Amino acid sequence: MHGTRLADGVSRAVPEPIAPMPIRPLSALTALLHVYIALRLVPALAVLTPAWPLALVALAVSAFTIPLPFLSRRDGASPGTALKWIGLISMGWFSSMFVLTLVRDAALGLTWLAGVAGGVQVQWAALKPWSALAVLAMATATSAIGFLNARRTASVKRVEVPIRGLPQALEGFTIAQLSDIHVGPTIRNTYIQRIVDAVNRLGADAIAITGDLVDGTVAELREHIAPLAGLRARHGTFVVTGNHEYYAGAHAWIDELRRLGLKVLLNEHVVLQTRNVRGAQTDEELFESALVLAGVTDFTAGHFDAAHASDPHLALYDAPPLVHTRVLLAHQPRSAPVAAAAGYQLQLSGHTHGGQFFPWNLFVPMQQPFTAGLHRLHDMWIYVSRGTGYWGPPKRFGAPSEITLLTLVPARD
């Protein structure tokens, strides 16, 4: 723990970045899973092709390099950038290899049962080697396609959000949303600059960054996050913390983002006035033309710092009651039930990556109420971005990255 002094002169303890997870147990587990894949596939491939040793070499490289991106100076080693790249690419490939090997084994087992029950003669001599080759080919192909999808600049996804009772002054108000960029070993300043250029071309009224911006400390990533200072919108750029900010040292990152000119919202709000004050005829007209943009800390932030416990109600403290249009930035979709009860019309979230690549999209609903896209919860809309970058493996398959341009429109009901 270390101390920091708040604006009111009160000192309190600030948590240090979370220590890296234990590498050795995870390395041992992934090594054993690689052995399982090799035992299930390599003998079958040896029957089919003399090039089978290449599969064994690829599995060995994968098992060795996957832990490398997660080593740190605290572990007494810090691999070079090239090895981190190889390790993260291997992670994506291994993930698909493991899942497809399980699917192959399940399919072979069902085929055997069907053969026994139905008296069907199964051509095992052809089925086993060709199915093993299919696993290798599909895992490699999806990893290659996923790499290209992940490394391209996210495309713009345009979404209209119908708001009941939307004031005329707010019709067409636009918010450009970025989420889950994960600046780190493979996402650097040139990648960020491309995103900044794409967002600035949209001419949005406001820009929202809904958490998980970084995967590393300020000292490691300061130069790579710097292009975000160039984001331009009429009302500015607003940021909320995600869980990865707390892994990396949230307090230092909050200070750094503010230094760059970004507005970090920690269970607080701002009132964005869309009409010139001098042009308003009455106070009611002035307030109705405004929008409350609130932001909460990550859903789990209270586990890292009790003072950062996420609170959508607190974020509205002292908000003008006559400003009826209220938008919340909350990293995790599971903030939505409390946000809806607090009276927001729209919540913008991320966190899920849309699953990033198959089959992880199937597991997201186990933790989050929404995976991606626009959803309705009681009287509130929630939009969940698939993310603008990626975490870990540079791989996106079936869940494309996005820069979202949300436009507020009046509800037609």
TrEMBL record:
GO biological process: lipid A biosynthetic process
EC number: 3.1.4.53
Alphabetical UniProt keywords: Hydrolase, Membrane, Metal-binding, Transmembrane, Transmembrane helix
InterPro entries listed in its UniProt record: Calcineurin-like_PHP (IPR004843), Metallo-depent_PP-like (IPR029052), Metallophosphoesterase_sf (IPR051158)
Transmembrane segments: 51-71, 83-103, 130-148
A GO molecular-function annotation: 3',5'-cyclic-AMP phosphodiesterase activity
Residue intervals of the Calcineurin-like phosphoesterase domain: 174-354
Cellular component annotations (GO), alphabetically ordered: membrane
Top-level taxon of the source organism: Bacteria
Alphabetical list of PANTHER family matching this protein: PHOSPHODIESTERASE YAEI, TRANSMEMBRANE PROTEIN WITH METALLOPHOSPHOESTERASE DOMAIN-RELATED
Protein name as annotated: 3',5'-cyclic adenosine monophosphate phosphodiesterase CpdA
Species of the source: Variovorax paradoxus
Classification lineage: Bacteria, Pseudomonadati, Pseudomonadota, Betaproteobacteria, Burkholderiales
Gene: cpdA_1
